[in-house]
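Re: that backbone. Tokens:
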């Protein structure tokens, strides 16, 4: 990685993925291991996803307390496609789903550039902070 910046590597990877060359991911994994930069994999993945988004391929992570039903999944995909579309094109959306029961309900949506936390857990935390703040103001 000394010879190539992470962003240049991400741009190259995104170009190769868009061209249908998924083998590039194995090559990059090998490079990261060889250069002893395994700890940078999350940053590189985020950079690759940002490059893909700039080229009309949105990869987003969705965490929810339970598996998403088809209707909810479709609405999230439509939301992302609409938010990222321009007049000439509609982006392709891919969701990476995970289940976290501690969220209680709702979902947390993450793209390379933004996060939307619509979980019950977040709402309860926010309410608790407001209540605590009001109590402190009254004292």
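Recovered sequence:
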């Amino acid at each position: 990685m000394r010879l190539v910046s992470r962003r240049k590597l991400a741009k190259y990877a995104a170009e190769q993925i868009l061209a249908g060359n998924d083998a590039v991911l194995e090559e990059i994994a090998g490079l990261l291991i060889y250069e002893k930069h395994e700890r940078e994999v999350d940053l590189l993945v985020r950079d690759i996803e940002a490059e893909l988004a700039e080229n009309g391929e949105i990869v987003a992570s969705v965490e929810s307390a339970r598996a998403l039903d088809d209707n909810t999944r479709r609405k999230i995909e439509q939301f992302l496609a609409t938010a990222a579309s321009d007049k000439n094109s509609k982006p392709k959306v891919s969701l990476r789903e995970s289940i976290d029961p501690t969220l209680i309900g709702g979902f947390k949506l993450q793209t390379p550039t933004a996060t939307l936390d619509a979980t019950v857990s977040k709402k309860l935390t926010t309410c608790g902070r407001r209540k605590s703040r009001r109590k402190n103001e009254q004292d």
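The chain has a mean pLDDT of 90. The first helix runs from residue 6 to 18.
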